[in-house]
Design a protein that fits this description.
- The chain is about 35% helix and about 15% strand.
- By secondary structure, it is of the alpha/beta class.
- A seven-stranded mixed sheet has the order 2-1-3-4-5-6-7, with helices on both faces. A six-stranded parallel sheet has the order 8-11-12-13-14-15.
- Helix 15 packs parallel to helix 17.
Length: about 500
């Protein structure tokens, strides 16, 4: 039986994470590839998945493997589980698709993901190895495309909603947008992840801090979505761009802030599967898991009823993480909550439309989480538009004084699809010249300047802040007391790896 479509998770981990890619960065299961594959399989198409990252395939090896499968359509899935990941994953996707076209130009290449949805025309104009793109989340567009007998027939392709393509005369066609999967149809039209088409979950590993005490506990690892999208409109985020049903060039993620969720009854089946597979470490990849109590509290109830012993990492906002939820979250195994603090200054948060929790005391919420036995992964962003040297120091000092179990320090980036990206283009601010330049950890990272500081000044502060925080004796003592010396030693091994930065004058 011929293969209709091969869903490909590309690999560019060394370029995206530098030395961290060897042992310290997570290797996450490609959730979107798994969901799209399951949808298409439900439409009676023959599908497979190739995870180039977990298989550790380079570009040439990836292309050879795709060619061996000989699919009608090679679909590169450039989604990611954090806002930056879609654009940075284009690095490996493009390099692999170019190698594939050299091997076998007859295999149709299809791209889908956040970067594609944000910049459909530009992507087709710049990348000759892409034949077709699927806009927004791509679910219906892809399965409708697979119904077409002749993928070279421009007249037929023009009738398919939600795709773009380069026609036989080399002109770019961007078709009318397709709808996204409605909330009421998520359980049936996007029915979970095709785990049986992926490698063993023993091959995937969680981030080091998720399992601090022992590196051997990082595997197996699983991840899932229980909801899609976000109701908020933060200027630095592009997560909602896959909800867009308007192909205009000036549409950003804030114009499509839609929140959808699967039923708890459907989601618990995924957790049942993880338990049977012996998985302990689980990432709930929702932009905000702790948002709708009718949703997440029911899921927690079902996990508790089954007496599962999971180590779950999920995300919350400060203002949605109510103290009355914490006991049940902890009992269900939610040991880690990622908090999007971004900046302790309400003035700077307001500028990027994240001021809803201005009257909430951040430290009080963190303390209530600690009282419940939940570890805090605090996320901060350096370099938002009104950032000054003083505000950078204020943010760092707040993080150090708070001394949470884990921190992420990010530099503000103009991710395609975000309002900050549109503003940067409008104001002719320098943007990344490579896809890996959208990665926080790459050599060619190109973050945004603020109104008062250069991009280099902000990046330098971020990198020094990360080292300073993670070598602070106060923080190391916290790790030792809560997780043991193995955690401290694992962290020390991580801090030995220094990221090189082109923007800061480093040479490779």
């Amino acid at each position: 039986m011929s293969l209709d479509i091969l869903f490909i998770h590309p690999n560019a981990s060394k370029k995206i994470y530098q030395g961290l890619s060897n042992e310290h960065s997570a290797i996450e299961p490609p959730i979107w590839a798994g969901m799209l594959a399951n949808h298409c399989r439900g439409k009676n198409f023959n599908v497979k998945i190739l995870d180039c990252e977990v298989e550790r395939l380079d570009y040439i090896s990836s292309a050879k493997e795709i060619n061996n499968f000989n699919p009608r359509v090679a679909c590169f899935v450039v989604y990611g589980q954090q806002p930056s990941a879609s654009s940075q994953n284009m690095e490996g996707a493009i390099a692999t698709s170019e190698e594939l076209k050299n091997l076998n130009p007859n295999i149709k290449t299809l791209f889908v993901g956040g970067h594609i949805s944000a910049l459909p025309r530009e992507t087709l104009e710049n990348e000759r190895s892409i034949d077709i793109i699927a806009l927004n989340e791509g679910v219906y567009a892809i399965s409708n495309l697979l119904k077409v007998d002749d993928l070279n027939d421009d007249k037929i392709l023009k009738k398919i909603k939600g795709i773009g393509f380069r026609n036989q005369e080399n002109f770019i066609e961007i078709n009318q947008a397709e709808i996204i999967v409605p909330k009421k149809l998520l359980d049936t039209d996007l029915p979970g992840i095709a785990w049986d088409l992926l490698p063993s979950l023993k091959m995937y590993r969680t981030a080091g801090w998720h399992s601090w005490s022992n590196n051997s506990d990082k595997q197996p690892f699983a991840a899932l979505y229980t909801s899609l999208g976000c109701p908020y409109t933060c200027s630095f985020c592009m997560i909602n761009i896959i909800n867009r049903t308007n192909n205009s060039e000036d549409i950003s993620s804030k114009d499509s802030n839609i929140f959808r969720w699967w039923t708890p009854e459907f989601i618990i089946k995924q957790f049942d599967y993880f338990a049977k597979q012996g998985v302990k470490n689980i990432k709930i990849a929702d932009e905000l898991f702790v948002l709708n109590p009718n949703h997440f509290m029911k899921i927690c109830d079902m996990i508790i009823e089954r007496k599962y012993d999971f180590n779950i990492w999920a995300y919350s906002r400060i203002d949605t993480c109510k103290p009355q939820y914490l006991e049940k979250l902890k009992k269900a195994g939610v040991n880690w909550l990622g908090l999007g603090i971004e900046n302790p200054s309400s003035i700077i948060r307001k500028e990027v439309h994240k001021d809803a929790f201005k009257n909430v005391k951040i430290i009080d919420i963190i303390n209530s989480m600690r009282d419940a036995g939940i570890y805090v992964a605090a996320n901060y962003i350096f370099g938002l538009p009104e950032e000054t040297k003083e505000s950078l120091e204020f943010t760092y000092n707040f993080a150090e004084e708070t001394n949470t179990e884990m921190v992420n320090f990010y530099s503000a980036m103009a991710y395609p699809g975000s309002p900050l990206h549109l503003e940067a283009r409008k104001n002719r601010i320098k943007l990344p010249s490579t896809y890996s330049g959208y990665s926080q950890h790459s050599y060619d990272t190109q973050n945004l300047p603020s109104q008062n500081l250069s991009a280099a000044e902000i990046l330098s502060f971020r990198d020094k802040a990360w080292d300073k925080y993670h070598t602070n004796p106060k923080y190391l003592k916290l790790l030792e007391n809560k997780f043991g010396m193995n955690a401290v030693n694992n962290l020390k091994n991580t801090t030995k790896i220094k990221l090189k930065r082109k923007l800061l004058g480093d040479k490779i």
